[in-house]
## 1
Amino acid sequence: MSRPIALATALFFATSAYADAPRVVADIAPLHSLVAKVMENVEEPTLLIETTASPHSYALRPSQASALENADVVFFTSQGLTPWIMTPLETLANNALVVEVMTEDSLVHFEYRESGGDHDHEHDHGHGDDNDDDGHDEHGHDEHEGEDHADEHSDDHADAHDAAHGDDHSDEGLDPHGWLDPENAKSWLSQIADTLSKQDPANAKIYRDNAQTAAKEIDVLTDAIRAQLEPVKGKPYLVLHDAFQYFDRRFELDFAGGIALGDASAPSPARIAKAQDVLKDRNVACVFTEPQQNDKLVKVVIEGTDVKLGQLDAIGARLSPGPELYAALLQGLADSFEICAEG
């Protein structure tokens, strides 16, 4: 076979494989990144939720709704993260295979921990569902405790409360931010590859080889981050809301508490006072904002203190979506912890 004919044949088969590949949608950028890793050299998945938006509430654009209508496979993280997504999945993606990745039994799962700063600091480094006695904090749900302190706070607290657009509430059940544990990401790579291989047997070997390569890259990154964060252990940190326990438990960081009990919920003045007490009692090294959330509440809590202010990004707000986003996201979290804690 002459070289031009061989080249044309190769291009034909490559184009055919590309054209026959399933149309895939993933909800958030970290999961989309893992799917894109598995699908490299085959097809590009579609990202449903923009990185600058909060996944907890979102209005689909027409192009995103169209992507769901045309999808063959939809990967989404969990109903707990995107409760609004079930309706569009049922009405728009009713012909697609829909995979909720956080339901896998093999994953590290954690219940929401009481994030007011007065819980035990025990960490479950076994990372399993059956370790509640050691790794999960008790859900005391005492967010109304100390409401008599509300009158002691300035009008700024009320303004901050209004700025967050919500009421104080506690989260119960599964914490859906599981992608922040790299071991979960490795499990998802296998799950994604298996799912796509069944949908697209012609490219099954590519999917599985890509998943294995990506898992090895995650192992290397995990070891590097563990070494990087060794000096940060034992330096308590406070966050706007507790979205980072899968990361801090994996790398044994010292979580002091969350200002708000729930994702994107606004805390009461009593809870803000509680967070200020935690700053003093725990000698907190850093307080972190999030790019998808208003930072006014955090500024109210640290007002008059010299506590360092940093930013943690669980989604990838400033990163370009694609196969490299997931690794960059984890590295960005590690860098934020290191820079803030070490000054």
## 2
Amino acid sequence: MYKVIPMDRPTAELISRWDFGSGYEFYNINEDPYVIETFLNGHYQTVMKDGVIFGFFCDGESARMHDDYEIDPDMIDIGFALNPSFIGQGYGRTLLELIFDYYADYHQFRLTVAVFNNRAIALYKKYGFVITDTFSEQIENEDVAFYIMLRNQSQDGCHLPSNDIQ
């Protein structure tokens, strides 16, 4: 069973130690105190699965990389991560479904993803996300390219029923 709860400090500290593995080190937080504090800003939710941290998600400004995004009251910006121990097992779909259910009142979803993250981009495309823009950010003295992707919640066949959500 999955349960969505507000992020708390002990959970934020545990997540900050996650290791996303070779090729995905970019997503490692490495116990950064600024990121831990950001996790506690009220826009982050933890997803628990049978007492284990399954993943987390955030919304609004916390999900945006910069301030140049168009704001639309029918659209929600989302950001999320799956616990690395669940990656590669098809659970990304489950986390997306939980997020869609949590924000069921919104008609459009927008997310930002690193261009190199092919496994995530493939999943998002399966759910009807389309690339609407690209940009680069200077991160630790390196240019990193990102896609902005958008999904219309009312798209037929893109929203599969979720199970065991509390």
